[in-house]
Design a protein that fits this description.
- It contains 2 helices and 4 strands, in the order βαβββα.
- The chain is of the alpha+beta class.
- The protein has a domain of 67 residues.
- Strand 3 and strand 4 form a beta hairpin.
- The N and C termini lie far apart (63 Å).
Length: 100
Amino acid sequence: MRGDLVQIHKVILRPEQRSGELPESTKASPYEAWIKGSLLNERAHLGDTVRIKTSIGRELEGELVEINPSYRHDFGKPRPELSPIGKEERERLARKRAEK
């Protein structure tokens, strides 16, 4: 319904439009965007082509893929080699403070 927060999917560049400077595995894939905004259409169903208005006022068109989307991002799986960094840095800072 008009005004609902939705997410659209849009292909920005098809594989044949992508730069020849990219690695082969990257060039073979389309450059895509998933964008959230307020629905401008009166009514729409998943899969419909719709228009949205983003939070910064841009109006875009794409395939409606989600209604009331949530934020589902993270920083990936923990890297074991990064685990000791916090402790090491606190110790390094303590040594620097002690030198003053």
